[in-house]
Amino acid sequence: MKFITQVLVISFLFLVSLNALLAQNYNSIFGIETTSWKTPFCNLDIADVREQISEIETVINGVSYKKVGTVTSNGISYDLNGIDANGYAREDLSSGQAWFMSTMEMVGAIDTIEFLVMDLSLNVGDTFLIHKPWNEVITSIIDSVYFISGLKYVQTNYHYWGSDEPLTFIEGIGTNYGLSYMHDSYNMCHCLISINKDTDEVYSNNNCFPPMVGNEDVIEDFGLSIFPNPASMYITIESNFESVQDYAIYSVLGEKVMSGGISSNRIDISGLPSSSYILRIGDRSLKLFVTK
């Protein structure tokens, strides 16, 4: 009888251990002690590399989170000011899902809200929701699932404006846009330069850089120029393009406010209010200033 009891106890402990092992299907996106992310930050005349770090755990409403802050000259800032992409991150290793919680400007107020930012359980054809300020929601489609060096990649068809790389979920990394990409509405450069877990760099992207140019009155970029700048009614386009190009104009928050085809090398901007914008023609991005 004692032997049978021992066998039952050992079997029970084995099953518990096996279930715990099976529950951790995916590699964690966090290091043991610290995790740091480097991303570009650009907004018109601002272009810099921003470093975020997570080294503190906290509990909110009974749920464990990693606290994510921004490295500054005065230390690490965890302020939820709606500008820096600070917040709280958590993951579920059994499903390969990750969430990020921070402030976002919604209709009528700035709310602290959590979104699912990564889901490795999705298959080709499944949908994934991209949340943006003012309650805008974009539905993306999973178009491929593949493995590199044993790690799972789930690729969507969603491109942040100006990005050649689609949003992709990466096992053990997070996403190629970082974790705070839904809340980071003032950043016009969504890509991930590198990730360090503890002392090891586990991801790097040499193609991640701010696509910004100067802000002279006449802006030239590889055979493309616009003038006047600032402008109030029209801008004139001079380029070496061989065919008619489409254009799009974006606000500082990444909203498309105008688009169309360029006619007679001019774009009518008389309907735009005074502000700073990004003009995108083909695969090139230029700063545009509108004054009334």
Brief characterization of the structure:
With 292 residues, this protein is mainly β.
Describe this structure in words.
The protein has one helix and 22 strands. By secondary structure, it is mainly β. It folds into two domains: 170 residues, no CATH class; 72 residues, Immunoglobulin-like, CATH 2.60.40. The longest helix is centred in the first third of the chain and has 22 residues. The radius of gyration is 23 Å and the shape is globular. About 4% of the residues have low confidence.
Proportion of β residues?
Answer: over 45%
Mean pLDDT across every amino acid position: 82
Domain module count: 2
Cα distance spanning the termini: 92 Å
Measured on Cα atoms, how large is the radius of gyration?
23 Å
- The class by helix and strand makeup works out as mainly beta
Point out poorly predicted stretches: 211-222
Query: Biggest sheet, open or closed, and with what strands and sense?
Result: 9 strands, antiparallel
Please estimate the helix content. Answer: under 10%
Task: Spell out the helices and strands N to C.
Answer: HEEEEEEEEEEEEEEEEEEEEEE
Total strands: the figure is 22
Please, how many helices? Answer: 1
Assign an overall shape: globular
